[in-house]
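Thread amino acids onto this structure.
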């Protein structure tokens, strides 16, 4: 079949590309190809009772499907250029913020209107952080929550499903360049669709696929970073001064020992810790909900250390994968350790976890993270815990829980123009799959940006 636009991936970038294309030109013929399931079919079998850990589904419903990896996330849209990617380097700071606010308007008009928009503007916490060697990054944060985020996605899908050809449970094999556009080859039976414009929005889970496509199409790339660390879980009251005002505080610390940067990431007040499956590797993440009936007594957040590599080793993701696989080998999945046990150089046991004051929200294997994480990364995390203890006393309590490992894989950064095109005209690479964006808001904004560019060219 011939389409005006084929979109590969139904994550935030793909969804907002399709939304904006249909809005600006309803006559466009558009296809969206997605390896995962449609939204209503996405379901993780882990229920905490019969199924307590990842069983290795053929397609991970947490990571793939309509809505992408963000569908069951905390639904936080961070409106800022301070973090979440470098989209502003390509399209400008003002344009990036304009598009992120536009995405926010769409989300609020599709089920998120009663959710809260938090802001760091004028907060006294910024001064308190500076006085203790920490830096609070500035942002406005729209918190949809996992539950409201799902409703927003449902509403967006309802608006798109009759105007766009969605092909779920379908993997794209390759992309071929032609004189008039592109041929997208997909499925086990090698079907082919032709298109004038092709948008690639495969997300982090498509990193290895994206690397192969770039090699085949001779698209220049450069190595990106990998973030490695743990997820911290503690009583919600300890961080309530921060979360009640800001919901999520993005806090950065430079360690005294090695001057490495450690940051908080994905803070989930009264949320739950969850598993993630990325290409068969089990890592940890966190969710939280807007509805009061779904809240827990704990708050969780990640502590991540960024690592960049150059000559002779450039495979940042491979490094992160090797650490995650070691955790899987030792713990059968995610490893759980009390902070007090880590400091005393002993593994946690189920008995010590049960005797602690913090009830874990994820069933994980008690163990010793020092056998998994490199010393430099572990030292940085421990330093950060004590630094946070100065602004949120109780963070460094013995019973604070650490889940490992948490790894944020980033695609290699694709060499792109200011139109988010690589070296091939009318091929666009957006979202986290580009290595340029690292958040829901930036990925969504990049989708809107290329959709507008396509409509201008097609006018």
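Threaded sequence (459 positions):
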């Amino acid at each position: 079949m011939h389409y005006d636009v084929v979109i590969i991936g139904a994550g935030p970038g793909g969804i907002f590309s399709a939304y904006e294309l249909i809005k600006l030109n309803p006559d466009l013929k558009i296809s969206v190809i997605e390896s995962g399931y449609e939204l209503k079919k996405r379901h993780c079998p882990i229920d905490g009772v019969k199924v307590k850990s990842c069983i290795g589904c053929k397609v991970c419903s947490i990571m793939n499907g309509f809505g992408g990896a963000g569908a069951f996330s905390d639904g936080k849209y961070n409106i800022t250029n301070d973090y979440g990617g470098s989209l502003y380097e390509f399209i400008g700071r003002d344009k990036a913020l304009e598009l992120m606010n536009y995405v926010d308007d769409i989300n609020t008009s599709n089920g998120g209107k009663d959710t809260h928009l938090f802001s760091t503007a004028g907060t006294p916490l910024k001064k308190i952080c500076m006085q203790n060697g920490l830096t609070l990054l500035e942002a406005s944060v729209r918190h949809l929550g996992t539950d409201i985020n799902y409703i927003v996605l449902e509403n967006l899908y309802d608006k798109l499903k009759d105007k766009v050809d969605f092909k779920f449970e379908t993997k794209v094999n390759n992309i071929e360049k032609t004189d008039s556009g592109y041929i997208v080859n997909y499925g086990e039976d090698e079907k082919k669709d032709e298109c004038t414009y092709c948008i690639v929005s495969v997300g982090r889970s498509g990193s290895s696929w994206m690397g192969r496509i770039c090699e085949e199409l001779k698209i220049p790339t450069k190595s990106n970073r990998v973030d490695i660390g743990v997820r911290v879980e503690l009583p919600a009251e300890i961080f309530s001064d921060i979360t009640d005002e800001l919901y999520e505080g993005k806090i950065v610390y430079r360690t005294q020992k090695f001057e490495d940067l450690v940051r908080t990431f994905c803070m989930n007040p009264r949320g739950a810790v969850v598993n993630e499956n990325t290409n068969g590797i089990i890592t940890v993440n966190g969710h939280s909900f807007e509805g009061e009936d779904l809240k827990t007594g704990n708050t969780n957040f990640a502590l991540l250390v960024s690592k960049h590599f150059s000559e002779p080793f450039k495979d940042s993701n491979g490094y992160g994968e090797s650490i995650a696989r070691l955790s899987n080998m030792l713990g059968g999945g995610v490893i759980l350790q009390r902070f007090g046990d880590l400091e005393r150089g002993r593994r946690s046991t189920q008995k010590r976890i049960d005797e602690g004051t913090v009830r874990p929200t994820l069933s994980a294997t008690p163990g010793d993270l020092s056998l998994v994480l490199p010393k430099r990364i572990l030292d940085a995390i421990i330093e950060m815990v004590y630094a946070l203890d100065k602004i949120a006393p109780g963070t460094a309590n013995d019973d604070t829980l650490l889940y490992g490992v948490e790894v944020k894989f980033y695609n290699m950064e694709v060499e792109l123009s200011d139109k988010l095109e690589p070296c091939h005209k009318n091929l666009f690479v957006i979202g986290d799959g580009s290595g340029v964006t690292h958040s829901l808001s930036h990925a969504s904004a990049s989708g809107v940006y290329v959709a507008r560019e396509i409509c201008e060219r097609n006018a």
